[in-house]
Each structure stands twice: as structure tokens, then as C-alpha cells.
Design goal:
Blueprint: E1 42-44, H1 61-74, H2 79-83, E2 89-93, H3 100-108, E3 116-121, E4 127-133, E5 136-143
Parallel strand pairs: 1-5
Antiparallel strand pairs: 2-3, 3-4, 4-5
Length: 156
């Protein structure tokens, strides 16, 4: 209703249609490894908890770059291969040994109905937590100090 009486603005298009020398067709055929990527591990970041102490906000740029490199390395694996790595990947029943703050955050995020949480261990104490759905790892927390699911020391 607000455009009545006004002329339509024309959108200019480049002359000649398709650019000469450009490849066209199925874009996935242009990406290396795309033919087998459907069953490979991939990432989603829509559920990252930015309001907790385990957000990515305080991450040092060098650490972020290293984490992204490791995530890219993991993308070469299928979920089955990932689950076969005992040190890198673990799955925990919830609530299990999740710390109280993490349980409270799951409730605040309306994810307290989840029955399992998965984690990737990088180096030392560093952990990345999220939820696996098929071949997609939905990233939730970056835990550089191993606080979300602390280990119980043996013989203590």
C-alpha cells in the first residue's frame, strides 16, 4: 500500500547472462570431498551458549584458530570413526556428572530434556560440548578448564 503511485525500481542485471569462463551446474561437484560429505561429521553453532562462562567470547584468537583447525580435521571422519576414538570423543548420560552450573544452563536454554551430551577432547583440559544429531555436532560449550563434566579421580 505504501508504494501506490510510485514507479517500480528496476534492478539492473549484468549484460550477457552467465559469465564467460565460470563453471555452472551442481555446486557440490565443485567442492573437494563433497561426494562423501553426507556421512561425515559437520558442525552447527546455532545453540552455542553465549550467556555462560563457557561461551566463546573470552577465547584468545590463537586458541580459536587452533580449535577451528581441529574441527576441520574432524570433518574428515564419519560419525562411526569419531565414536571409535576413545580419547577424542565421549558421550555422557545426563544429568550424570555434569556440574550444577551446566545443568542450570541446560534448563535455562530449554535443553534439560536431553538424555545425552557429547564432548570432544582437544588438548590438556580443553573440551567442546554439544549434542550429536545424525552426523551433525551441535556445539554448546567451550570448556577450556574441564569444568562442565569434571573427572572423578581414581582412588580418592
Amino acid at each position: 500500500m505504501g508504494n501506490r503511485g510510485k514507479g517500480q525500481k528496476k534492478i539492473s542485471t549484468p549484460p550477457g547472462g552467465i559469465a564467460v569462463g565460470k563453471r555452472t551446474g551442481n555446486p557440490s561437484s565443485l567442492l573437494p570431498g563433497s561426494d562423501s560429505s553426507g556421512d561425515r561429521l559437520c558442525w552447527r553453532f546455532a545453540h552455542v551458549d553465549h550467556d555462560s562462562q563457557w561461551g566463546f567470547d573470552s577465547m584468545e584468537p590463537a586458541v580459536l584458530c587452533e580449535v577451528l583447525r581441529k574441527l576441520a580435521d574432524c570433518e574428515s571422519m564419519t560419525v562411526s570413526e569419531l565414536r571409535g576414538t576413545r580419547r577424542l570423543f565421549k558421550e555422557y548420560d545426563l544429568p550424570g556428572g555434569l556440574c550444577k552450573d551446566a545443568l542450570a544452563r541446560l534448563t535455562a536454554m530449554r535443553r534439560d530434556d536431553m538424555t545425552k551430551i557429547q564432548r570432544l577432547e582437544f588438548t590438556g583440559l580443553q573440551r567442546l560440548y554439544g549434542f550429536m544429531e545424525g552426523n551433525v555436532f551441535h556445539v554448546v560449550w567451550w570448556d577450556p578448564e574441564h569444568q562442565v563434566y569434571p573427572s572423578r579421580l581414581k582412588n580418592t
